[in-house]
Structures
1.
Amino acid sequence: EVQLVESGGGLVQPGKSLRLSCAASGFNFDDYAIHWVRQAPGKGLDWVSGISWKGGDIGYADSVKGRFTISRDDAKYSVHLQMNSLRGEDTALYYCAKARGYSYRLDSAIHHWGQGTLVIVSS
Amino acid sequence: QSALTQPASVSGSPGQSITISCTGTSSDIGRFHLVSWHQQHPGKAPKLLIYEVSKRPSGISNRFSGSKSDNTASLTISGLQAEDEADYYCCSYADSGTLIFGGGTKLTV
């Protein structure tokens, strides 16, 4: 059974940093792209970033480009999202999601979702 | 990176069929066969219903079907059931190298 468990969320002040992690199990992690998708309270889904297998191809939403960095550790079956210069509009539930295949572009469809970790940016 | 356009809400009676539209542009839905649909019940994580426009993952009822014409994708739910009441989101890959979601549609049964 595919499992994605996010951690690292919490309350953080504007301008500060936070690092989210996603621990994966139940599938051959090396072979799949992973996405981060967020959902602000009461709002819709918003794609944040994607990373293809081996980390060879990475993409970001314009709203986070230059502030967030996605990375993966295939040996530890984990993906991380380093979030810097956080803003109030980054407040959301952050989901880790497994793509259909190896590329976050060509195999981009999200097939499995984690339960999310909540990030609140407030002073 | 404008969001895909979905109706805010749709409704139907048990047993009926409904269709949710998702309109994009020639840079996303119109260009790629990479549209997916996700169902989200209140307080729960989303769940994949349809990928690559019309494919169903294993375990998803054949009451759910997807299609695409030009820049618009559609999700049809037939034989509506009470448990279908949820929010539905479309998603497409775009030539900007990003994924774009629709604003979501609340289905009331």
Note: The mean pLDDT of chain A is 96.
2.
Amino acid sequence: LAKTTQPISMDSYEGQEVNITCSHNNIATNDYITWYQQFPSQGPRFIIQGYKTKVTNEVASLFIPADRKSSTLSLPRVSLSDTAVYYCLVGDTPTGFQKLVFGTGTRLLVSP
Amino acid sequence: DAGVIQSPRHEVTEMGQEVTLRCKPISGHNSLFWYRQTMMRGLELLIYFNNNVPIDDSGMPEDRFSAKMPNASFSTLKIQPSEPRDSAVYFCASSFGTGRNTEAFFGQGTRLTVV
């Protein structure tokens, strides 16, 4: 089973770009990399997903190097409302069905 | 669609009582997940279903916990008897598809307090 490692916490200020890196050394060939965001008192919310190279949407960008053993979630010009926990997930389909296993996540605190 | 709907939003019960948490997944989704979240243990996957069939219940902590999915639009998580250490926020999530690139949608959660 692929496991992920990410920093426990990060601090930033409004307007800065934040990059959160996730390590997944045992990622399988067919695994995708997915990031979720969780605000206090809410369930996690899908942010972005990718397989290789770069993916961008209206919320974030995801950078994945050629070896796919890590990935970086990039949040451009963060605001106070981006304070949340960010989770990196990879594949995990031991039974052939996707098993969503969350790690400890990265707690991002954005200050004024 | 209203999203994943969980009920109740809050539940306070006494130790030893039976607790039933309910979840209505998004229409058309064929996978359903139950999670438990606490400060100490984070977000734990308890069980997940595909096409109403339990696929993996290895995360269910003990026999006091049971989950059912009688049809595609309803699932329950039952704790009997409940204990104070079961106090947590329980989330239900659903998704469509079974592959490695499916997106899951979470409900608002049920905050359970066992006193």
Note: The interface with chain A takes residues 4, 31, 33, 35, 42-43, 45, 48, 50, 55-56, 91, 93, 95, 97-109 of chain B (CB under 8 Å).
